[in-house]
Structure formats: C-alpha cells, structure tokens
Amino acid sequence: MKKFLTLLITSLFSSILPAITPLAPAHTIEASVSEDKELRAVWVATIGGIDWPRTYATSPQTIEMQKREFTDMLNRLQLIGINTILLQTRVRATTIYPSAIEPWDGCMSGKPGISPGYDPLAFAIEECHKRKMEIQAWVVTIPIGKWNAVGCTQLRKKYPNAVVKIGAEGYLNPEKPQTADILSRICAELTRNYNLDGIHLDYIRYPENWKQKVNKVQGRHNITNLVRRIHDTVKGIKPQMKLSCSPLGKYGDLTRYSSRGWNCLNTVMQDPQAWLHEGLMDQLFPMLYFKDNNFYPFAIDWAEASPHRGDGMGAIGAGLAVYCLDRKEGNWPLTEIVRQLNVCRQLGLGQCFFRAKFLLDNVKGIYDFLRLFNHAAPVLCLKYENDPHEGNDKLSTGRPKASMSSQSFLPNDGKTLTLPTQADADLIVVESIAGNALTTRSVRAHKADISTLPEGVYIVRSLHRKGITHRIGMFQIKRR
C-alpha cells in the first residue's frame, strides 16, 4: 500500500506540475526557502535521541558521524520546503550546549553531565544558516525530568522552594519567583552566546496534573508573568530575537464546538493569544493534534487571532500531528494530513510538523507528498474521489484556473454568495471546513442563497449532473 500510494502521489503531482525544476540530489542542495515565505517548521527532538542524534559523540570519528546525521537531516528537510527548525536545546534542566548554568544532557555523549567534545548548538546554527533556514532554541520550561536525574537534582539543591514533585517527575513551580529567575537566565545565556533566530518555549504552562490551589485568573497571571519576564530579558539583549511557544491546540471553548475540557485558558492556564497581541510573543505553534471538528474550527480560531507580520513568515504555524500517521500512534490516513495542510494554507496559517523522524521516515508517503506540495503554488486544490472520513487514501488532483486558485474566500454579504464566472454550475454543495456536506443550493447568475446558514467558514463545490464535484473555494459568513 505504501509503495502504491507513493507512486500514485508522485504520478499525480508530476502531471500537474510540469514547470517545476527537478529537485537536486542532497549533496548539491542550495538554499531553497520558498519565495512566498510560508512558515514551514518542524520540531527536532533531542531527548533520548528520538530525532537526533542516533550516534553518541565519544571520539573524533563519532563526533563527525553525529554532525553528518544532522546535516543529512537538514538536507532532506530542505527538499520538502522546511524553513524553520525548532531544535530541542534545553531538554530536562539539561542542555545540548556548554552551559554555565545547567549540566549536559546525556543525549549527545551518552552520559549525563559529560560533554560530547564539541558545541552541537553552535554547529546546528551554522548549518541551518548555510541553508537559509531559521533556527529557534526549543526550551522545555516547567518539566525538569526524573526526580533523581542530574538536571532535577541540581536544580532542587540550588532552589529547593522552586521545585515540586509530581509522581516520579520534578517540575518548576510557576507560582515561585525563582522560576522566572531560572528560566530567564537560561534564555539570556542562549541569547547572548548564540546567533539564534529565536527562543521557543515549550510547556510554558501548569502541568495538567497540578493540584490547583489558585483560581484560573490568578493561574493565567502567574504564567503570563513568566512569559513577560523571559520576553523582557531576551528583548533587552537582542530586540530582533523572536520569542515563540507551543500552546495547547485549543485556546478555549468555541460557540459551537467544545474543547472537551482540554484548552489553554482553563486546563493549563495559558493565554497565548493575549501574549501575541500584547507583543510578548512573536510566533505561536499551537499543538493542533486532532482530527475533524476537533481540528478545523479551532484552526479557524487561531487564524482569526493571527496579526499581520511584515516579514511574511506568519505569526502562527499550526502544529500538525504527522506522528499520528504511524500505526502505533493513531494510524491516520494520509488524506487527513493532506486536508489539514490545504485548510491551513487557505486560512493563511503556517505549518509546523511534529516530529522530524515521522517526516523523514516517510510514514504513509508523507515525505513524498510534501516534497511536491511545498514546491507547488501557494494554493493547491485537491479533491477526493471518495469521502476522506472513510480513510480512503486515493487522491485525485487538479490545478484550477489561475483566477479561481487566487480566489481563497468568495465574496458574500451574509445572504448571497457570489461565485466566480468560471464556476459554471447549476448547483453547489456547501461543506463544513472538515469536508462534511451540509446542504445544496441552486445557482442563478453566479449567485446562491446562503441566508439560512449560520455564521462560520465553509467550503463550496460545484455539482454536475453526473455527480462530479469540483472545489470552487471557501467563504466565511459574518453578520455582526
């Protein structure tokens, strides 16, 4: 099935993208960041070497092997259009760089507290910048690892009042002033010593199993104070340094869709949308690791919260769960990620993939698909021969006429939808953003009645007598 799908996708895209220059082999790659500067990021985890490295650095030979693993990974990620690397730098109160504050993580040398014999972060920054890729230092903030592990042990000896134990794990207490001191010092060290493009804060929130003693308003205030302290520290050293974070995928409950008790505001006391608008954050990478109505309405909510950025790279990159393609993780069909990619692109959201390994392992053909998708036009329309909710991986593709492909959102006044003149149809099908057919409407003089539809974002398709349907575009109803 995997080989068949790979061949199918390759043949389909090669037929619609004849103008694309053949991709260079890895050893001759030059920087190929897309001119449209769509945000295309990936999390590269170092904990346990699950993304990198596979080889411990214990000798000059193994140091070179470890470095080559990283450059090979960058070369392959570049081929699928990745332009931003989020590299796990602070792991669990441990680091992958020579820190004056915290000990080495064992992922690089195989032994916690022991140097690998070179500076992996400096090397990674140099290699990313050679390829015109941005690199942000992924800093795990609140979790500090096993209670008796080297990082947690050192921290709780220095700051006994700032560390709490939950189960077998240690956590920094977001309610203690020392926590802001610890995190801002780590971020200051990274900002001063390295030519990074940004600091990426992970787990900047209350642990979900925290025994909450303060109300939610106070809890959000406590986390915001941490963010503000880090922001002021980093920007005070390098105002151009980006600050980003990875909040939960659901900001809060929506009018028509519940977060099912798992959201930023009330579950873990984050307020990332406020941080973005107050300028405390430059970018957000919400972890939208869901499907169907647990994904699409919440993706729209993030898109509506995104302010304009001058550099075109986007303030929000939707975290996409490519790991769920794996049979052990969720066994999603490839079509699920394809739909999410297309909707994100229509909404103006960037892409951020979790994690690098699942992309590079080409799980269910995802690498082959992205190699073509991210070198195609910024808006690429795909239609499904069968309902994608049934898990069918069979895709058919087509490039619409230029005037239609640029028509991301169709005009309407809340009562009447205006269709492009190229959309020659007597009937249209109105779908939810997740692709579920809601209703049909007759078309007269390129107009259709939508007055009975509630506010929201919809997909519209033409419907021909033989049952063939073509995607025309999207539209949003706002009546207030």
List the defining traits of the structure above:
480 residues; alpha/beta; eight-stranded parallel β-sheet; four-stranded antiparallel β-sheet; globular; disordered N terminus
Summarize the structure.
The protein has helices spanning about 1-15, 60-80, 105-110, 120-130, 150-160, 175-195, 215-235, 265, 270-280, 295-305, 335-345, 355-360, 365-375, 400-405, and strands at about 40-45, 85-90, 135-140, 145, 165, 170, 200, 240-245, 285, 315-320, 350-355, 380-385, 395, 415-420, 425-430, 435-440, 445-450, 455-465, 470-475. The protein has about 475 residues and is an alpha/beta fold. It has an eight-stranded parallel beta sheet with strand order 9-8-7-3-2-1-11-10.
